[in-house]
Every structure is written in C-alpha cells, then in structure tokens.
Amino acid sequence: MMTVCDSEDLRPGQRKLVFVDGRSIVLFNIEGTLHAIDNACPHNGASLASGQLDGCMLRCPAHGLRFDVRTGCMPGPSGLRVATFNVHAVDGKLAIDID
Ligand code: FES
User: What structural domains and CATH numbers belong to the chain?
Assistant: First the structure.
C-alpha cells in the first residue's frame, strides 16, 4: 500500500492525478466512493485524467472509448480494460494497493 495524498485533497466530485511507484494514476471521488485507474488508455496510451465523466463512465479524450472507473471495463461483454487499483482511506490519508 502506498500513501498518495491527504483524504481532504479528494472531495466528492473531485479527481486527482498522482505519481506513485513510477506510475501515473488518476483518483476519483464519485459521490463519496473512491476509485483509482491507470492514467493510460489501453487503446493507445492517451492520458485519461482529463476525460469527461458521466456517472462512473470515463471517456478517453483521445478517441472517445469509455471505461467504467469501478471495473476498468468498457461497456458490453468484451473490449479493452484499463487497470484499476484499490483505494483506502487510512488516518486521513489515501493509499493505493500497488502490486
Ligand atoms: S487512446 Fe483512448 S480511445 Fe484511443
């Protein structure tokens, strides 16, 4: 588990880009639930950090593929998947599970 920021830095409706263990990861607070995904679109590597959110669906700014930040999956039975990470709030800090 790697500490990435203070819990206060990620309020509901906010997102945050962090760099941890050589990776770029985007954290989201969607209505109080925390999510974290790799900041690299599995289609062609574009940064997802500025993608438009619709509920839990994040749209890649490059070519518009959509990923569910809860699972990393595209809608439908198949498709690409972006890596997701577990986020924990511990003692006022946020930490991410990195393998
Ligand atoms: S790089 Fe994300 S949709 Fe193409």
Answer: 2-96 (2.102.10.10)
